[in-house]
């Protein structure tokens, strides 16, 4: 093969600038479409995790009430599920194997007894950490 034929072959194997730009635009369009849908799913999974943890806390609180005869006071809080508050004679805990978890956003769950929505209220303030909100920022509770 002659040297000039070899140079022509080498030049023809690369991509043109236009081809690279078209590929980059297609990748950008795909990322713009898929990215928001992907990140919306992450927010939904955190909310589902909070709901599951609140259900587990509710079961532990109900077991506590069956043993002791009443729910922990708001002052005792959820900590009463893992250590005997005020030396309750009928306390048979701990009622949670690994302690009270933090919510998916790294904050403590809120607890109130008596509750406004039921016997007691257990809730998370959502991703924004402020009462109220919408979507991922909304509160997640046992009501």
TrEMBL record:
Record-annotated Type II secretion system protein GspG C-terminal domain positions: 38-143
Gene from which the chain derives: gspG
Location(s), subcellular: Cell inner membrane
Keyword Transmembrane belongs to the record: yes
Family membership: Belongs to the GSP G family.
Full protein name: Type II secretion system core protein G
Transmembrane segments: 12-34
Topology in the lipid bilayer: Single-pass membrane protein
Pfam families per record: N_methyl, T2SSG
Keyword annotations of the record: Cell inner membrane, Cell membrane, Membrane, Methylation, Transmembrane, Transmembrane helix
């Amino acid at each position: 093969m002659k040297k000039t034929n070899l140079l022509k072959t080498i030049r023809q194997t690369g991509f043109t600038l236009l081809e690279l730009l078209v590929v980059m635009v297609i990748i950008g369009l795909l990322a713009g479409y898929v990215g928001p849908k992907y990140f919306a799913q992450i927010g939904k999974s955190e909310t589902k995790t909070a709901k599951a943890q609140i259900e587990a806390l509710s079961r532990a609180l109900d077991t506590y009430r069956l043993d002791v005869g009443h729910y922990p006071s708001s002052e005792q809080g959820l900590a009463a599920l893992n250590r005997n508050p005020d030396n309750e004679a009928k306390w048979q805990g701990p009622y949670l194997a690994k302690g009270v978890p933090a919510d998916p956003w790294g904050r403590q769950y809120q607890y109130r007894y008596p509750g406004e929505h039921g016997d007691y209220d257990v809730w998370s303030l959502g991703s924004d950490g402020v009462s109220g909100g919408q979507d991922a920022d909304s509160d997640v509770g046992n009501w």
